[in-house]
Prior knowledge:
By secondary structure, the protein is of the alpha/beta class. It has helices at residues 11-23, 34-43, 58-71, 86-94, 107-148, 152-169, 176-197, 214-224, 229-240, 245-252, 256-274; strands at residues 3-7, 27-31, 48-52, 76-81, 97-102. It has a 5-stranded parallel beta sheet, with helices on both faces.
Amino acid sequence: xxxxxxxxxxxxxxxxxxxxxxxxxxxxxxxxxxxxxxxxxxxxxxxxxxxxxxxxxxxxxxxxxxxxxxxxxxxxxxxxxxxxxxxxxxxxxxxxxxxxxxxxxxxxxxxxxxxxxxxxxxxxxxxxxxxxxxxxxxxxxxxxxxxxxxxxxxxxxxxxxxxxxxxxxxxxxxxxxxxxxxxxxxxxxxxxxxxxxxxxxxxxxxxxxxxxxxxxxxxxxxxxxxxxxxxxxxxxxxxxxxxxxxxxxxxxxxxxxxxxxxxxxxxxxxxxxxx
Length: 275
């Protein structure tokens, strides 16, 4: 969901725009002055800032544009002004405004224009994603395998989980490569901690075998005891406890899109153990 910051010294305008943007399913926040806007941008990334040019004074509005260019160069700015001339509009665009809105303008029209900006941002992000993936995959996979000793399958699972997390949070990620690298490191450390903590199969978590099926259950228990902790837990939750993928996602704190591929790999590892 695209984050939008609304900046205006008129609380009624801020509240009206924020409410309308939220109705349109945007994640909007509002502030009333330049200082608060800069604090908000320092705390998190806003892909779009919708700001009035006059914040207590016109000078404040120009200072905010300069601050956005300095603090968050990837942010797209929509500037609002009630006294725009061609010269002012030219200067606004030179200072970084992607869109200039001339007030008065109905809130519905402003929201429609913001929706167009969001569409352009998402289209640009989609074009960049393949390149980010291609540039990052080899280095991150090599790091997981060489630095943390993961096998090729485990490394691929870690990268898949990191990528799903990135796709969920990409609207707030300023530096994708650094974010992915940090996430892969954290996931590798968690994978190692899981292996260190686990000392063998917890047989009490496996259902009692049905009559005549004891041997198969014993074989399955033996296989579970020889795979890594995450694979074992996935198989227990899905095959033994019968949880849905969304329930497994919540229980194991992994992206929903990662559950299916990781479960298939977990089953393959068990088949390899039994072979």
